[in-house]
Structures are given as C-alpha cells and as structure tokens.
Amino acid sequence: MEARSTDDSLIFARPASRLSSLTRAIIAFAGSDRRAMMGGMLLVLYILVALMGPGISPYDLNAPDLDVRMQAPSWAHWLGTDRIGRDVLTRIIAGSQLSLQVAAGAVIMALILGAPLGALGSYVGGAIDSSVQRVMEGIMAFPSLVLALALVALAGPSVTMLWFAIAFSSIPRYARLVRSGVLTQKEREYVDAARAMGQSPMRILVRQILPHIMAPIAVQLTLDFARAITVEASLSYLGLGLSVPYISWGTMIRDAQDFLEVAPWLAIFPGLTLAGVILAFTLVGDALRDRLDPRMRRSLSRRLA
Amino acid sequence: MRLRYIAMRLVQLIPMVLVVTMVVFFVMMIVPGDPVMVMLGAVDGAQVPRQVYDAMRVRLGLDQPIIVQYLNWLSNLLQGDLGTSITYRTSALEVILQRLVPTIYLMVGGLVIAVIIAVPAGVLAAIHNSTKWDHLATGFVVVGISVPTFWLALVAILIFAVYLGWLPSIGYTRPQEDFVDFLRHLALPMSVVALNIAATVLRFQRQDFLEQMHQDYVRTARAKGLSETLVLWKHVLRNSLITTFTVVGLQMAYLSGLITIVESVFNYPGIGYLLLNSIRTRDFIVVQGVVLFMVFLVIVVNLMVDILYTVLDPRIRYR
Predict the structure, then answer these.
(1) For residue B11, how far is the Cα from the chain centroid?
(2) What confidence score (pLDDT) does residue A166 get?
(3) Are A236 and A249 spatial neighbours (Cβ–Cβ below 8 Å)?
(4) Local structure of A81: helix, strand or coil
(5) Residues of A in contact with B287 (CB under 8 A)
(6) Across the interface, do B19 and A146 touch by the CB < 8 Å criterion?
(7) CA–CA distance, A231 with A253 (Å, rounded to integer)
C-alpha cells in the first residue's frame, strides 16, 4: 500500500496512451462480467439511438396518419401506432433523446453542486464542514421524487428546472462521497509530495486527489443516471413533465392508459424501453461497484473460496 | 442510558429540522406570481379590490422582512398550524389527516408484506448462494429495481383488472363499510408497493446475511455444536435484522414518493393523491403541508429505527 502511493506521486505526467488504456480496461471489464456486458450493450444502444434521433425512422414523428390509427404491431409499424396513427417506435426513439438529455444534465448538475461542497467541508473543516453536513442531512430527509415534483410543479417545467429538481436530492450523495474521499486521501504521501512541490490546494484537489476518488463517483453517477431517468419518466407520467414538442416515455404511457384495454401496446412498449434502459444503468452500476469497492470484493472472493 | 441516547438524538435533530423547514419555506418562494393573489384564489388576471389585497397581504405577513416571515411561519408550524387550504378553506393539517388513514393502510401493509417476503427470501438466497434460488432472487431484485413503479402498476391493472377481471382497477372502500371490498381495492396498490420495497430489502438482506455467515461468532456457535438451522436462523438472522431495519428506515423517504405514484395510478385517496390533486388545483398550502408531513414522517421513522437499534443490539451506544 505504502509503495503504491509513492508510485502514484511520481507519475505526474500521465501516460500518453491513457485513452486507449481506458478503452482497453472498459472492454476487459465488460468481458469479465456478464452483467456489465449485457448492461453495457444496452447502454451503447440507448445512447446511439438517442444520438441518431427519430430521423432514422421512415415515419414522421408528429404528423397524424388517420388511416392507420391504433394498429397493433405489424411489419410496417413494428411497435404499432397510437390513437392518431403515429408510429410508436419513432416516438420511443424521440423519447430517448429527452430522457438522455434530462438525466445527463441532472447527474452532472448534482456532481457540480455536490462535489465542491464536499471538498470545501473536508478541506476547511470546523464549523463550515459541520454546517455543510447538517444541510446535506436535511436535504437527504426529503423524498427525492416528492421534492422534484413540488419543485417542478411550483416553478413550471423546463429542461433546466428538471435538471435542478432531479439533481437537488442527489447533491448530498456527491458531497459525502467527495468529503470522505478527500479526508482519507489528504493524509497520503502523494499529497504531501505535491504540497512540497508547491502546488496550490485547488490544483492538488483537482489533479491529485480527484483521480483517486473517481471510482466511487463513477459508480454513483451510473446509479443516479438510472434514478434520474426514472424520476423524469415519473414526473411526465404524472403530467408534470415537459409538454409538446418534447416527447417523453412517461407522457406516452400516461396517454396510453386510457386505451389499456384496446391498445395495450401503447403502454407496454414505452414501459419496456424505460425498464430496459434503467436496467442497463443498474447492471453497469452494480458491476462497477462490485469491481471497485474493495470491501465488496473481499466478500466476493471469500464467497468463492 | 437509553434515555440519554434518545435525548441526544433529539437534540441532533434540531439543525436537520431547521434545514428542512428552510428548504420548504424557500421553495415556496419560487412560486411564480403574486402569493397574495394566489392566496385569494385570483389567478387568471382576476381583479381584486385594493383593500382586500392589502388586508390579505398583512394577514399573510408579507409586509414583514423575510426572516421574520420565516420565523412566524416556523412558530405556527411548531404549533401544528400548516396554514389554511386554499381550495378546502379549512386547516391544511385537518385536510391531510383526513387522507392519512388510507395511506397508512397502504404503507404499513406494503412494508409488512415486503418484509415477510424479502427477509426469508434473502436468507434463503444467501444460504443457497449461487444456486437456482439465488439467481431467481437476484433476478427479482434487478427487475424490481429497474421496472418503473407507475408502469408496474399499469401492467398489474392490465392483467388483474382488465384481462382477468379479478380485482377492481381503481378506488377505495373504507374497511368499516365493507371489509372484503376494502381488501379487494387494497390488493393491487399494496402489492405494487410491497414488490418495490421487497426488491431492495431482499438485496440488502442477502448481502448482509452472506457477510454475517462468515463472522467469528458464527464459527463459535457452530463449534459449540449448535445445529446449522439454529445458527443461521437465530444467531445470524438476529444480527442481520439490524441491517434490515436500517434499510426499511432508509426506504421511508423512497416510500413517500412510491405511494404518491401508486395512489395516483389507482386513484387511491391518500395523502399522495392529495398532493397531486393540490398541485393541479394550485393549492400550495396543502402541497407544502404534505411535503412537510412526509419529511417529518421520514425523520420520525429514522429516529425510531435508531432507538430500536439499541434494543436489538445492546452494543450500540451514543458516542
């Protein structure tokens, strides 16, 4: 352990092949864990579809086609059509864009707001640290969905408001992660070395400590992504999300519930898509955590022994 | 000793309660539009006489500095005054308490069923680690965590109400009116809540039991010659139940969101349904009241869990 941290302190310039080694690590990780493999493939599919958008479908996203209203899945319309004849698959593809946009924004916002608070607390300590912690505990007592619901309902929905409403209750998780990470890392030798070299606290924090605590943050980001997608869809389902021209899976399911009996596919396919995407993030997040959390790994190897 | 611990925990709660109330108070400040007009129920550009407007403004205390407003609001809150509902024109607390009973049935019933399913299932999955049972349990957990609640509820309605016609899809009957009908209405929403909570409880129960099984005290118990059943179901389970209680406590916040969705899908007249309805009718006093009520529920349950710890595990003491 000692030797390792000294090693780290010597590597100030990172290897040139950093990206390719990262890619290789990801591939090796996915290959070694069935969950990561399956989840990862679903994730790539989701992101690709969201990036390409509804343009990859031959059907128009919004134009009604009254000749094909409420048709069950067929070769022409793989996932059927809705009550004014729009192609369900095309709309699901469009929905992936909103869910990705909202969830990505929300987790990034939670990280950006939470991480500095945690770093500040652990670096400064004392009264500031304990008051930050009290505030975080207070926020954690809120039911995240209910808080998001109230915020969006009161302020009116917009992409930025959704980011904030979903991010808000996640802020304490990042603040805590960063706080405990910095507390354990700042006594290590490589931090002393960096300090001795005259690096500023900010630079030490970002360049030295941050890379060491990225692992738990990555796990949290992945799991929060799943949560953010769920909350966005739930808010839209409750009629509190973004309305037209935005297309949300939650809204699709909301509109479908009046036709459960005659056109169940309208509710089933958006729901399955949603569940699949959430499953993907959960699987990858769990696999990452098992890999990165040394306590878990110990119990795993003990189990295998 | 225990009393001292409880007292310390209560003191620790004070800053948390302050933060929570501040968040709620300032969130209410972001409501667009003039709160006086909102309070008067005059939203769509309706005209209000100047005197009425000023009287309402003074009555709401909006002529005072914001910190005074907060302190006034807080002191009312501590006396159980959540304000007067805009739509119901009675005390918001009363409105909430009226809707509370159905929610309690749903929450408590869901939690109890979840624990009854998840604890034995988690233990079995841990004991028969890496077998078909374990994979089944793990699969249930993954699916239970991934499937969005509102969709699960809709699928349940589709199967059990629309296709099979066994249960009513929406609504509520009071148990004192018709107990069987009460149970039939409760069955679907309660199952959705239970499945959701069971997935999380099962996951932690399995994990913790696995870790406990390799502790020294277990080896000692076995060495004493105790039967395997006794060791696992008495010694290990007792220790691992502490984790279960923690998880259930931590689930309280999640549970409030869960019942809000479930009550909305099933038109179940509890406080979650009230919350959504009040959002629709823009009754912000009730919205604020329900949110506060839910947060305090979370805080109180977690406090009780902490106290319960000291009963379950005498080693836990206040540092």
Answers:
(1) 23
(2) 92
(3) yes
(4) strand
(5) 150, 153-154
(6) no
(7) 14
* Residue A293 DSSP code: -
Amino acid (1-letter code) at residue A173: R
Q: Could you tell me the end-to-end alpha-carbon distance of chain A, in angstroms, rounded to an integer?
A: 24
- Asked if A278 lies within 8 A of B148 by C-beta distance, the reply is yes
| pLDDT per position as a tens digit, B217-261 | 877 887 887 777 777 777 788 778 877 888 888 788 888 889 999
Q: Are A222 and A292 in contact (CB under 8 A)?
A: no
pLDDT band at A293 (very low <50, low <70, confident <90, very high): low
Whether B319 has a pLDDT exceeding 80, the answer reads no
Kindly report the number of other CB atoms within 10 A of residue B114's CB atom: 25
d(CA B169, CA B151) in angstroms, rounded, equals 14
Q: Across the interface, do B146 and A279 touch by the CB < 8 Å criterion? A: yes
Chain A to chain B Cβ contacts (< 8 Å): 146
Contacts of B257 in chain A (CB under 8 A): 143-146, 149, 234
Q: Measured at the alpha carbon of residue A8, what is the angle toward residues A3 and A14, in degrees to the nearest 5?
A: 150
Cβ count near A200 (within 10 Å): 11
Residue A100's identity, in one-letter code, is L
Closest residue, chain A, to B35 (C-alpha): A154
- Return the SS3 of A87: strand
Q: Note the Cα B296 to chain centre separation in Å.
A: 10
How far is residue B172 CA from its own chain's centroid? 20
User: A57 near A51, Cβ under 8 Å?
Assistant: no
Query: How many whole angstroms separate alpha carbon A57 and alpha carbon A43?
Result: 20
Residue with tokens 């990561």: A36
Instruction: Determine the Cα–Cα distance for residues A93 and A83; give it in Å rounded to an integer.
Output: 18
Coil/strand/helix, residue A291: helix
Q: With contacts defined as CB-CB under 8 Å, which chain A residues touch B254?
A: 143-145
Provide CB contacts within 8 A for A76, sequence distance 6+: A68
Question: CB-CB: which of A134, A139, A275 is closest to B146?
Answer: A275
| Cβ neighbour number for residue B4 with a 10 Å cutoff | 10
Q: What is the Cα–Cα distance from B307 to B301, expressed in whole angstroms?
A: 10
The pair of three-digit structure tokens given for residue B180, joined into one six-digit string: 């069987």
Rounded distance, CA B303 to CA B212, Å? 25
Q: How many CB atoms lie within 10 A of CB A287?
A: 23
CB atoms within 10 A of CB B43: 11
Mapped onto helix, strand or coil, the DSSP state of residue B91 is strand
Q: Find the CB nearest A260 among B157, B258, B260.
A: B157
Measured CA to CA, the distance from residue B206 to residue B121 in angstroms comes to 8
Sequence-distant (≥ 6) Cβ neighbours of residue B316 within 8 angstroms: B309, B310
A74 or B278: which leads in pLDDT:
B278
B71 pLDDT more than 80: yes
Do A139 and B151 make contact, defined as CB atoms within 8 angstroms? Answer: no
Residue in chain A nearest B156 by alpha carbon: A260
**Are the CB atoms for A255 and A266 separated by under 8 Å?**
yes
Tens digits of residue pLDDT in A109-135? 999 999 999 888 887 878 888 888 888
ipTM of the complex: 0.84
